[in-house]
Design goal:
single chain; alpha+beta; five-stranded antiparallel sheet; 32 strands; globular
Amino acid sequence: MAVITTSLSAQEKITFKVSFTEPQAHYADVEMEISGLKVDQINLKMPVWTPGSYLIREFAKNVESFKASGSTGNMLNVSKVNKNTWQVNTAKNGSIKVNYRVYSFEISVRTSFVDESHAFLSPTGLFLYPEGKLKLPSTVTIIPYKGWTVISTGLEKVLSKVNTYSAADFDILYDSPIEVGNQDVFEFNAAGVVHEVAMYGGGNYDKEILKRDMAKIVHEQTKVYGVNPNKRYVFIVHNFNSGGGGLEHLNSTVLGASRNAYSTEAGLLRFLALVSHEYFHLWNVKRLRPIALGPFNYDAENYTSNLWIAEGFTAYYQDIFTKRAGLLTPEKYLSGLASAISALENEPGNKVQTASESSFDAWIKQYRPNENSRNSTVSYYSKGSVIALIMDLEIIHSTKGKAGLDEVMKAMYDEYYVKQKRGYTDKEFKAMAEKIAGHSFNEIYDNYINGLTTIDYNKYLNYAGFAIRNDAEQVVEPFLGIASSLREGKMIISQVTRGSGAWNDGLNVNDEIVSIDSYVIKKTSGGSLEILKYIAGQRVGDKVKVSVIRDGLDKVIEVTLGKNPSASYNISTVDAPSAAQLSVRKRWLKL
């Protein structure tokens, strides 16, 4: 395929109009106008992924009814040259219009969704860009569906035009989701920034409580960096019957929440932890970023081995800041930390994939799990979070409380975002941590980031006068090593745990379990519990005969039961902590 060079003049102008002629059918209608053209052909491209969500999503699959016209309305020739590129023959028109429709029916924080009640527009899957010209500015005019009265977005409003917004370049446009409908909007001020909260879907939230608690989180996070980079920030919140997840943006975020969970202590805290996580991304990843994550290539994967910093450190800090804001007690924080460590250490993949490998392979593994993912992968969120923990404690201990991970993050922000205006390399992040700690971090990097050594949690927690123990270590409990579920009236194995009897002796995912020994497994929703109860009545080392149907054939597989490997960690204070330990504890937990 010949590469078309899109030569755009200084007078070139790009405008978009988005309307909704059939919202009930989940369509957004887009008109793109390009004026000031001085080329015979132009390539228009749709991104294949959205920053912050590391998966090729092929947004062009949702585009249809693509057509282009000249300044007099004459139809222009259009050719699809690859999966996400349309080539328009301008016929020497100085101005062209491109019209297309985008099917929008995937509920998530990273994809567009349109129905009769609202439109959530995720820009990477909606707006085309001229090839090679991501630096061009553009404007977006929203034409709401009848009855829709509210638009929420981080884009700058064009005051002279109705429902029109501007973006200095496509990176900003693609980083600015838009909510259109009748969402409930309220504001609060914190750290000198106006914060808009746009609530879609209703819910039992208390606005005053949210304004108060969200402001506390904003204040605590801004203290670390000494500056809040925005004048205005928008929280777009989608409240569903059961919702979750979030996606960070330059001056906004999209959050998924459960509409009726705000009235419970646990539900409110989950939401505030999500707020804390996504807001911290303002600094960590949106500005302080791995060097591979900007300028973006919207046409392919953008590989980095540092998502354990970008996401894992953010996961660590989400709870740190809810605690610093006074929304989480130290006791509950430590309990949650013990649970997080238990969950990580109970993943067999934690002994197979390193944190750096997990980051690099996010594009093919994190967002594409299969039945063996638990055995072969580790989340850069959970592993990165405990790496942040031990680095924080190591630095506080080494500097006698004069510095911690906060100082590393601020120093990196000042050096690479403010001063050098670029992303950091893996070596540069390590060097800064070592500089502030005053010693080498080779052990942490070699063993825990690029290696598979089990983290010595007691070493680091002891710096703060805490000890961690596995309460399940002495429990001798038989373990078959499968997960199962009812599928089309059959009890089907959905997962086999690495190293278990089921793994070693050959039970397979998709096997239908008929019986264990002479005990027939009921084909009901309680069948999985029946299996657990039967196995619990055996002993470690016992052999059981599992009758299965595999590919229509009966098989009997003898399985030797092993010991349940599940850990259950608990963190407690040591007896008579020293003054040095209490000093580290005070700095770490901000007591």
